[in-house]
Structures are given as structure tokens and as C-alpha cells.
Automatic annotation (TrEMBL), chain A:
NCBIfam families, per database record: HEQRo_perm_3TM
Organism, scientific name: Streptomyces cyaneochromogenes
Subunit structure: The HisPMQJ complex is composed of two ATP-binding proteins (HisP), two transmembrane proteins (HisM and HisQ) and a solute-binding protein (HisJ). The HisPMQ-ArgT complex is composed of two ATP-binding proteins (HisP), two transmembrane proteins (HisM and HisQ) and a solute-binding protein (ArgT).
Pfam family, one: BPD_transp_1
Transmembrane segments: 33-51, 77-97, 109-131, 255-277
One term under GO cellular component: ATP-binding cassette (ABC) transporter complex
Protein known as: Histidine/lysine/arginine/ornithine transport system permease protein HisM
From TrEMBL, chain B:
Substrates-to-products reaction catalysed: a polar amino acid(out) + ATP + H2O = a polar amino acid(in) + ADP + phosphate + H(+)
Organism listed in the record: Streptomyces cyaneochromogenes
SMART domains: AAA
Name under which the protein is recorded: ABC-type polar-amino-acid transporter
Entry's transmembrane regions: none
Length: 314, 253
């Protein structure tokens, strides 16, 4: 009944311009202030402890752009890129093999994935390094012939160990991506007269990429960090160089912090690249793409300046 | 008139379930042929057999006088290679219930894709033709939109344009309006009516009895994997002879 009365009175009182914006006192969340203060205090304590420790922080900037460190960074990056290249190509091949109708190829792919995913990558690296016990010589007929220990350099050991292991993980990621594409897409492409290969290349893979790219980005970042394991096969990448310098210069802990800073820097750069790649493959999948960080910052600055100017007026 | 599609005792099973139990029918060139019937009657499966998305288990199926999926030499049948099947599918357009537009391409790119990739048409040529076709289905202004930015009815009209881009001699429609909001059905049916008037041979699986009555030249009522009744749509729909047809029509009309 009251509703009816309100309805009859409403239009006469309120102007047709629209409803008045609500101005209310917001609820105060005192608990949040307390937890924020506690968290900040703990953080401050940790920072203070580190600053007072027996760590010569000055050594880090001194060595940050050291030639040996930079060459270690370069080798870490090279190993990451090449291992991921082997992993991605191998992964696609294995995924297609696993999904193929041929029982032999699908079983081989299954076995490969079972083996390389089921053993630790550190163990695989050491096994590759010591494979000279099984194969004394490598003989590729007229093309190449050498002793195994000469052929299997630390770099090749690292590359094969990391790349072949990664292929097993990438295979599962690619397979999930291919399976995620609706079967109607394949049917529509076939109905238009497209071949299997063309359907895969033009229709299925571009859509599968949306599912494949985010976990692959994680794999790249993981790979960057996993390359530190290859210091065990005598390959002088970032961590190994940092440890070597640490031992000779008498600042071992400082050099580990330096290596950590470099890893953090590199993974941050990769994350940005991943973000834009995801955006590219998301086209058509959502009605409007989310804003890039730059767009977000600009929007925030704009709203901030608007608010402050409004505050100035009040 | 010659037969565009001819089925002789077509059987199809999925595992132990026999979906088509001997279909005999003939679609004449230039006619609109409607297939109606309850869900699970096998009408969609039969449609998918016509462009070999499903393999038939027995009988013979001809499109434009040629056997679908096989080559006959003497009394032996040879399975066609995938590439040969693909070659035949170029001439048969298909429109799906769930549209199946390529979501990573704009409407224009969807229509251009097959002419460029399958027929090797130049991009410019294909683009001009695609624009014409989008205009024909009333979506000239949506060329740059991705499927997710279009309504169901608009998506289905793009799908029709995409099929027409291959200049097919036969169009298959698999319940083209079943996934649409009622208010959007009319636009799609208008495009199909227009297409029928241009003389396209169309096989339409549908629940739109009004469309079948107005536009259809022949109509078949299927139930349980067999053709129960066939004839002129106006006769069958207004005066069904068979008991099962009567029961079905009393529920849907």
C-alpha cells in the first residue's frame, strides 16, 4: 500500500533529471588498520635485520654489470630460449602424436611423457652428462664421429637435459589446448572443404593458443630459474658465475643476492612479454580487451586529477 | 529436373544404436527440401551424411550423381582419400545449429577464409565478394565485428554468408534457428527465403513449420530412423496421413 502512495507522490517531487546520488558515511574498517600496521611493522623488522647483517651490500652494485656476470646472464638467457624452443617444438610434435589415430605413435608419445615427467630434471641432467659410460663414441656415419665426452659439452648436456624434459610438459599443455577447441570448429572447417592440415593450422591452433600461451609463459619463467640447475654439469651460467666470483672475491652471500636480483629482473621482463602475448591471442574471445597497464595508469592519473580538482573546489 | 541428392537404403549406426534404418529419398535440383521430425529421429544425422561428416554403413548416397565418400569400380567400392572428400565438400555449404563461426576472425574474415584458403582466391577478390555477401544477409555494417560481438541471429547470417562464399550447388541447414531467441528467428528465415527464391537447392532440417509450409517444395517426416511420410509440405502439414505424423504435428503446431 505504501508503495502505491510513494509511486503516486514520487514523480511530482523528484525532478525528471534522474535520481540523487547517495551520500553516506562509509563503514570504518578498524580491523584493516590494525592488520596493516602489524604487517608493516614485521616488514620493517625484516628489512632492518638485513640491513644490520654482516652483508656488504655495496658489493652488489659493484659486480652487477661485471663482465663475467653479464656473460653468465647471456648464457642463462641463451639456454632458456633454446631449451624452450626445443621444448615447444617437441611438445607440439608429441601432442599431435598423442592425439593421432595411430596407436604406435600415440603410445610412444605417452611413454616419452611418462618417462621425462616422472624423473627429476636434475637426475636427467646428470644422466646426460654421464652417458659416456654407455656410449663411448658417437658415430653419425659420414657426418660426425667423435668420443662421447668431447661431443657432450656442458652446453649440449644442459640444452638436451632441459629441452627434452620441457618437451614432455609442453606436450601436455599443447594437448590440453588442442582438446579445448570445440569440435564444431573442425566440422565447420571441414564442411567448407578445408584439409586436416589447414584446419589445424588456420582454425584449431590459433584458438588453442589462447589456452596454451598462459601456461607456456609460466614454463618460460620456470625454465629461466631451472637453468640454475645446470651449474652441476659445469656450465657457466648466471648462478655458477656468481658462485665462482663469490668464492674468489670473498663475498659469497652478496653474489647470491646479486644472482637473485638478476633472476627477478629477467622473470619480470618475461612476465610483461607474456601479458601482451596473451592479449594478442585473446582477440575475439571477449567483448572488450582488458586495459594494458599503461592505459590503467593513465586512467588512474586522470581520475586522480579529476578528484583533486573536485576536492579543490569544495 | 535432375536429382541433387539421392538416397537409397541409407543406414547409419553409432556403435550398436542404429540411427538411420534405410532412408530412401530424392532432392531435386533447385528445390527446398525440408526434414522434420522429433529429436533423435535421425534427420540431423542424415544431413551430416550428405557431406560425409558421418560415414554411412549401408546403402548408397549420391550428390549430383556422384557417390558420397566412395568411388565405385566394377562392383568394388573404394574409400575416397581425405583430399578427395574435401574437394567434394567445397560444393556443399553447411549451416550449423550452433553457428560454429571462427571466433578468432572477424565476420569478414570468416566469410573470406574458405575462398582464400581452399580455392586460392586473391585476398582482394575474396574481400569484395565477402562484403557483397554480408550485404546480402543484411550485415554490411558488421564486417569488422568478431562473432562474440554479434547476436545469435547475426552470427547465423554470417554463417550463411560464409557457406555461400564457396558458391555451393547445395546448401544444408541443420536446425539453423533452434539456438536463437524467438525474436531473432525471423531475420535468419528471411535470408533463407531470399536464398530459396534465387534458386538454390536447399536441404533444411527444421522445427519451423511455417517456413516449411511457405518456402518448402518437398517435406519429409522422419521418426525412429525411417521416413514416415513425405510429399508437398502444405498437404503433409495440413492433412497428415500417418498416425505418427499426426501425433507429432498436433504437438508442434
Amino acid at each position: 500500500m505504501t508503495v502505491d502512495i510513494d509511486k503516486s507522490d514520487g514523480p511530482a517531487d523528484t525532478p525528471p533529471a534522474g535520481p540523487e546520488a547517495i551520500k553516506a558515511i562509509p563503514v570504518r574498517h578498524y580491523g584493516r588498520y590494525v592488520t596493516a600496521v602489524i604487517a608493516l611493522a614485521l616488514l620493517g623488522g625484516i628489512v632492518y635485520a638485513f640491513s644490520q647483517g654482516k652483508i656488504n651490500w655495496g658489493a652488489i652494485p659493484d659486480y652487477f654489470f661485471n663482465d663475467r656476470i653479464l656473460s653468465g646472464v647471456g648464457k642463462t638467457l641463451l639456454l632458456t630460449v633454446l631449451s624452450m624452443a626445443i621444448g615447444i617444438v617437441g611438445g607440439i610434435v608429441l601432442a599431435v602424436m598423442r592425439l593421432s589415430k595411430n596407436p604406435v605413435t600415440s603410445s610412444i608419445a605417452w611413454f616419452y611423457i611418462w618417462f621425462f615427467r616422472g624423473t627429476p630434471v636434475l637426475v636427467q641432467l646428470i644422466v646426460w652428462f654421464n652417458l659416456g659410460l654407455v656410449f663411448e663414441y658417437i658415430n653419425l656415419g659420414p657426418f660426425y664421429k667423435d668420443e662421447w665426452s668431447d661431443f657432450m659439452t656442458p652446453f649440449l648436456t644442459a640444452l638436451l637435459g632441459l629441452g627434452l624434459n620441457e618437451a614432455a610438459y609442453m606436450a601436455e599443455i599443447c594437448r590440453a589446448g588442442l582438446l579445448a577447441v570445440d569440435e564444431g570448429q573442425t566440422e565447420a572447417a571441414h564442411a567448407l572443404g578445408m584439409s586436416h592440415a589447414k584446419t589445424l593450422r588456420r582454425i584449431v591452433i590459433p584458438q588453442a593458443m589462447r589456452v596454451i600461451v598462459p601456461p607456456t609463459g609460466n614454463e618460460v619463467i620456470n625454465m629461466l630459474k631451472t637453468t640454475s640447475l645446470v651449474s652441476v654439469v659445469q656450465y657457466s651460467e648466471l648462478l655458477r658465475v656468481a658462485q665462482d666470483i663469490g668464492q674468489t672475491s670473498g663475498a659469497p652471500a652478496e653474489m647470491l643476492f646479486l644472482a637473485a636480483a638478476w633472476y627477478l629482473l629477467l622473470t619480470s621482463i618475461f612476465s610483461v612479454g607474456q601479458y601482451y602475448l596473451e592479449r594478442y591471442y585473446a582477440r575475439g574471445s571477449s567483448r572488450s580487451l582488458p586495459a594494458t597497464p599503461f592505459q590503467k595508469i593513465r586512467a588512474n592519473l586522470l581520475s586522480l586529477s579529476n578528484r583533486s580538482s573536485a576536492g579543490g573546489n569544495a | 529436373m535432375t536429382a541433387m541428392v539421392k538416397a537409397e537404403g541409407v543406414h547409419k549406426s553409432f556403435g550398436l544404436v542404429e540411427v538411420l534404418k534405410g532412408i530412401d529419398l530424392e532432392v531435386k535440383s533447385g528445390e527446398v527440401f525440408c526434414l522434420i521430425g522429433p529429436s533423435g529421429s535421425g534427420k540431423s544425422t542424415f544431413l551430416r551424411c550428405i557431406n560425409h561428416l558421418e560415414k554411412i554403413n549401408a546403402g548408397r548416397l549420391y550428390v549430383d550423381g556422384e557417390l558420397v565418400g566412395y568411388r565405385q569400380k566394377g562392383d568394388k567400392l573404394y574409400e575416397l582419400k581425405d583430399s578427395e572428400v574435401a574437394l567434394k565438400r567445397r560444393d556443399i555449404g553447411m549451416v550449423f545449429q550452433r553457428f560454429n563461426l571462427f571466433p578468432h576472425m572477424t565476420a569478414l574474415e570468416n566469410v573470406m577464409e574458405a575462398p582464400v584458403q581452399v580455392k586460392g582466391a586473391s585476398r582482394n577478390q575474396a574481400k569484395e565478394r565477402a562484403k557483397e555477401l554480408l550485404d546480402r544477409v543484411g550485415l554490411a555494417d558488421k564486417a569488422g565485428n568478431y562473432p562474440s560481438q554479434l547476436s545469435g541471429g547475426q552470427q547465423q547470417r554470417v554463417a550463411i554468408a560464409r557457406a555461400l562464399a564457396m558458391d555451393p550447388k547445395l546448401m544444408l541447414f541443420d536446425e539453423p534457428t533452434s539456438a536463437l531467441d524467438p525474436e531473432l528467428v525471423g531475420d535468419v528465415l528471411d535470408v533463407m527465403r531470399d536464398l530459396a527464391e534465387s534458386g538454390m537447392t536447399m536441404v533444411v532440417v527444421t522445427h519451423e513449420m511455417g517456413f516449411a509450409r511457405e518456402v518448402g517444395d518437398s517435406l519429409v517426416f522422419m521418426d525412429g530412423g525411417v521416413v514416415v511420410e513425405s510429399g508437398n509440405p502444405r498437404d503433409v502439414l495440413t492433412n497428415p496421413q500417418h498416425e505418427r505424423t499426426q501425433a507429432f504435428l498436433s504437438k508442434v503446431l
